[in-house]
Design brief:
Chain A: This is Amino acid ABC transporter permease. The complex is a heterodimer of chains A (288) and B (234). Helices cover 71% and strands 0% of the residues of chain A. Chain A has eleven helices and no strands. The longest helix of chain B is centred in the N-terminal third of the chain and has 33 residues. The chains are: A mainly alpha (288), B mainly alpha (234).
Amino acid sequence: MSSVLFDAPGPAAVRRNKWLAVLTVIVVLAILAFVLYKFAETGQFSATKWRIFTFPLVQQTILGAIGNTLQAFAAATVLSLVLGLVLAVGRLSERRWINTPCHWFTELFRAIPLLILMMIIYYGLPPLGVQGITPFIAVVTGLTLYNGSVLAEVFRAGIQSLPRGQSEAGYAIGLTKSNVMSSILLPQAVRAMMPVIVSQLVVILKDTALGFIVTYDEILFQAKFFGSQVQYGSPIIPAAMVAAVIYIGLCLLLAGVAKWVEWRMSHSRKIAAGTHLVAPAGTGIPQV
Amino acid sequence: MVRRLARPHHRPARKWQRSVDTLLNNLDIFTTGFKNTAILFVVSAVFALILGTIVGGMRVSPVPVMRAMGTVYVNIVRNTPLTLIFFFFVFGYPKLGLAELSYPVLAIIALTLYTATYVAETLRAGINTVPLGQAEAARAIGLPFMQSLSLVILPQAFRAVMPPMISVFIALLKNTTVAAGFSVAEAGAIRANLSERGEPAIVVLLWVAFVFVVLVALLSAIQHHFEKKWQVTR
């Protein structure tokens, strides 16, 4: 194999690479072994610390917490997609009184840290007389404002990456501006940006964990609760492991869906061969 | 409250005045908060760059085992919420009987491990933007490995890497606020500190948000500057 960085290896390089491979394995195994040894030494794998997770009631509570996480994720996803579409279309409007506010809105909410946003909603609004702010509302609103703004930029980049002929053809057959946007540009833009959109959904799923800090009853919240039960040996590390398996599992599942969507699109008969749309450069890395 | 109701026409100006007072009367807490944020940001950025370069190097290395290890690390950590990494280090680490570390140090470890994956991916993407022909041409004129790397490939990759790398650091700056939930007295924790002094949460939080907006705008301006200056024309 040849790449930008190195040529196809010759016999000496092959030998050296083998040694490097062995060395890497040894170093990584040593680190892993040290961590596992420390875990074992402090009894993180002992039955007492894991017993609490065998109780059906505890398991149900954790399932409930997963449900809460997914609820916040689902609500925030739908709302951010809607907000993102509205803002993207707004930013592309030719009327200045529409596109300027949309521009400032996206710039502002991408710059404020998501946690501060959630805190503003959760701690800041109730004293001003705003009623009924639950942690759920704070988490979903914060996620929506931030990710809606990020997705708006994604949609906009997608629309702008389309060839001009697309909208010109639409106008030529007599479609109105909104018709061109809704039936010509947006469907293609969404399709082109699908991988980026789904990886932004993974970001939403991960960021629901911030709800832990504004007391939303999600996975980490329960992990902290069960992890601090002294009579079961304060199993905080087992609790973190459980939470990690759940989160990584959910995120990998979502990433798998992204791969599948990408694969299906590249094999779709609706998209003729040769017109394969490529996401514009620089949009591949999702905003964290 | 009574006075305010008695003279309603003065309200907007007084509200603004009191918001400024909230900032000025508690400037000590605001400055310590943002000083700690700056420390978290700079130290984590340096370590994330180092670790990220190592992992990124593994991701593009000719040794398959190294590539696999790099991929596993990036995929696991990128699919873990930052809050959970903090959770593990702040609550779990002290139980392991290792060297005692303060909360800010644990926060730096969490931020470093998380951000390093993004640094690694940005580096890899940047190296991949250099066309294979560039390296082949360098080899064809007889440049040895180190020279083709330092004279031909890395200068081009660096230009492509710089703007997205600043995006990674903007994200890191915003992510430092997560430390507020884990006993580090940085900018995100200013609200909790000031609610003891009886300051209105919304005013305090809006000031914090304002400073972050200014800082992010500053970093974005630098990014735009370099984007224009270093645009690679192909």
